[in-house]
């Protein structure tokens, strides 16, 4: 599952770690109902909602951005061999992600910048890989970019005594996917408006998009010809276009997450920006249009690599 598109001077390639990642609706969105899932199935089709079980289907995507001699990875996926006993959907992956990545024609050694929209397991796990009994940066020549608020929050959590449950798994994530980069890699801190790369009239910029986490960011690729938003966990599944009030179970601040989601999706519709989601089980970008009182999601085909 992959596609490639061009925005100004940038070429963007989707690299899929996991193509189908199903969840019961209420596990993903605690307030979701079976009726809502059924409507989503009718609206979006069986690729998004399993016909037999009614489960909502997600995926895990990374995005490879090449611009003016700079190669970036936005959201490095879940990673293999990571212990997440309290977050079982993330536990002990064993995928061929690195082979798929190599299939793009870019070696991990060629990556210049790695950035996570936020520091959750499925967005920073491939920051590192297991070499022998040690975690090493997967992209050895890259500069890793961490959102300031994200890293501060995670380090504060890692400093607590005896974390339990999900918090314990987030500390494990820090120890295997973030700390090794801080100790053995190149890294820097980013705030809202941080410029990742530019060439000609095209820029790749990080924008604050809080709610799912306090320091969540999106990556915007903008040029005179158009733009795209790599949206991370601002939106998880198209059911949230039908029911904007649905908050994902991991949202730190559900009300703020909704305001951010509404704002980002509205900006995509208003400015004609392509939406590049982290978790939609699709091999194409999306546009958004306003249709009466709601935003409608439209697939954009013809961009396959």
Question: Can you offer a commentary on this structure?
Answer:
By secondary structure, this protein is α/β, with parallel strands linked by helices. The chain has one domain (4-299): Metallo-beta-lactamase, Chain A (4-Layer Sandwich). It is built from eight helices and 16 strands. It has a seven-stranded mixed β-sheet. Helix 5 (148-158) packs across helix 6. The relative contact order is 0.17. The mean pLDDT is 96.
Describe the structure concisely for a colleague:
By secondary structure, the protein is α/β, with parallel strands linked by helices.
How far the N terminus sits from the C terminus, by CA atoms, comes to 10 Å
Radius of gyration: 18 Å
Q: Tell me the β content.
A: 25-35%
Task: Please list the strands of the largest sheet in the order they lie side by side.
Answer: 1-2-3-4-5-8-9
Structural class: alpha/beta
The CATH class label is Alpha Beta
Helix coverage percent of residues?
25-40%
Largest sheet: 7 strands, mixed
Spans with pLDDT under 50 lasting ≥5 residues? none
CATH architecture: 4-Layer Sandwich
CATH fold-level topology: Metallo-beta-lactamase, Chain A
CATH superfamily: Ribonuclease Z/Hydroxyacylglutathione hydrolase-like
The overall pLDDT average reads 96
Number of domains: 1
How many strands appear in the DSSP assignment? 16
**Helical region count?**
8
Morphology call: globular
Order of helices and strands: EEHHEEHEHEEEHHEEEEEHHEEE
């Amino acid at each position: 599952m992959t596609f490639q598109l061009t925005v100004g001077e940038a070429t963007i390639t989707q690299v899929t770690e996991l193509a189908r990642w199903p969840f019961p609706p209420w596990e993903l969105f605690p307030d979701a109902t079976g009726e809502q899932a059924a409507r989503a199935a009718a609206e979006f089709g069986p690729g998004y909602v399993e016909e037999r079980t009614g489960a909502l289907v997600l995926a895990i995507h990374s995005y490879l951005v090449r611009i003016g001699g700079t190669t970036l990875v936005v959201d490095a996926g879940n990673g293999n061999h990571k212990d997440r006993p309290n977050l079982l959907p993330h536990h002990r992956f064993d995928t061929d992600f690195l082979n798929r990545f190599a299939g793009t024609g870019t070696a991990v050694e060629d990556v210049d910048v790695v950035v996570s929209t936020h520091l959750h397991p499925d967005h920073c796990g491939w920051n590192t890989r297991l070499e022998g009994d040690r975690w090493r940066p997967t992209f050895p020549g890259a500069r890793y970019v961490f959102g300031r608020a994200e890293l501060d929050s995670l380090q504060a959590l890692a400093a607590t005594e005896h974390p339990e449950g999900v918090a314990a798994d987030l500390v494990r994530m820090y120890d295997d996917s973030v700390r090794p980069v801080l100790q053995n890699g190149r890294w820097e801190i980013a705030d809202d408006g941080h410029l990742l790369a530019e060439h000609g009239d095209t820029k790749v910029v990080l924008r604050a998009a809080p709610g799912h986490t306090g320091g969540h960011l999106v990556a915007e690729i903008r040029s005179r010809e158009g733009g795209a938003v790599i949206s991370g966990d601002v939106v998880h599944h198209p059911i949230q276009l039908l029911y904007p009030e649905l908050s994902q179970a991991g949202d730190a601040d559900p009300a703020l997450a909704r305001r951010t989601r509404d704002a980002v999706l509205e900006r995509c519709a208003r400015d004609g920006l392509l939406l590049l989601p982290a978790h939609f089980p699709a091999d194409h970008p999306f546009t958004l249009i306003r249709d009466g009182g709601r935003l409608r999601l439209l697939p954009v085909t013809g961009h396959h690599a």
